[in-house]
């Protein structure tokens, strides 16, 4: 394992966080939030000192980094980032628990979005910090999917493959900056689109900015957005456009901006997304929701955002199975949305259809393609292994949450909500003060960002001896 390269990448991440904390400290100073000024400045100084010291002490790595080093960095990144970003949630807020601060940081970084700090209003600098963490988490999620998971091909059909990534002859980490720059450019454009729609529609700039970040990251910057109805004025339009862009992901957006509109419209993930969107909207409509409300709920749930595009009072009456199904599917592979992913659902559905046809023609030779690549039995085996791992993680989560005193319904919503990074499914009323439950939520949210299967190699001693 190339520990020097991993430590250096973590140090660079620390410098990014410390720079963002300076910006939050300035906002806190302008807003008169003295405790937050001290917290952000102190944490920034400590983090930048440690990061610079790490870069100086490690020096240039002598060994060439490989994809397995990228996997190790991806896993350590989520845990280390939580520790680096948690201190601002401890000072000047109604919280004395380190676990709660870590839970808050992980919720933002994984774009799950819910909050364990209660129902009161948060300081302006903390809301900005939540926005920064949501954006950093979304960019990291898409970048890791387009580089680490693409290189390791952990899911058979290569749903993370893209033309932006190619292995470097020097070091694996040398291949990441090109993808990172593209992801940042796409993020900025998407945020500006949503921000412009809402500002032109008369929405205050601060609310428009938080909505824009929430939509692209498919998270929830302002926790009050979980319960407040935003269907009025331009917010509904801006958030809907943003959630569509955030759910479609990097691959689809790049194709569309490259002029390949026709190919984009018939892409497997796009067709699967709109099919799922329509089906869940019709099911919600059959349960009493109005047409536009059903469509808004379906979009919010499928993107795993939790943003209340419709009144939460009406959606709480939906059957539990219907509320859980859309987040379990999620968005595109190269997006910040959680879930199993649309591409896996498409490939598995195609193969199941073929098996039904094969029942009448036992000796027939059938193949299907995914993005112009023929898929083999190995592809299906990879997806089945992933689904088995996902089911096992869900069962383990259900047991662990039940041991914290939660009932069955609360345990299953916590499990699915954390694994799919859908914060709206997590019960917040009984979350404050339950540190063990928060601990398992932390692990579930990170496991969801690792897409479950990527965590398995880390449990073997041979992986760390390489």
Describe this structure in words.
The structure is a single chain. With 466 residues, the protein is mostly helical. It has one domain. 65% of the residues lie in helices and 1% in strands. It is built from 18 helices and 2 strands. The chain has helices spanning 3-31, 34-58, 67-85, 98-109, 124-152, 176-200, 205-217, 233-257, 261-265, 268-286, 291-302, 312-315, 320-329, 342-358, 377-403, 408-419, 435-449, 461-465; strands spanning 368-370, 373-375. It has a two-stranded antiparallel ribbon with strand order 1-2. A hairpin with a 2-residue loop joins strand 1 and strand 2. Helix 3 packs across helix 4, helix 8 (233-257) crosses helix 11 and helix 10 (268-286) packs across helix 11. The longest helix has 29 residues, at 3-31. It is globular, with a radius of gyration of 22 Å. The model has no long low-confidence stretch (mean pLDDT 84).
- Measured by DSSP, the beta-strand proportion falls in under 5%
Largest sheet, in brief, is: 2 strands, antiparallel
What's the structural domain tally?
1
Mean pLDDT value: 84
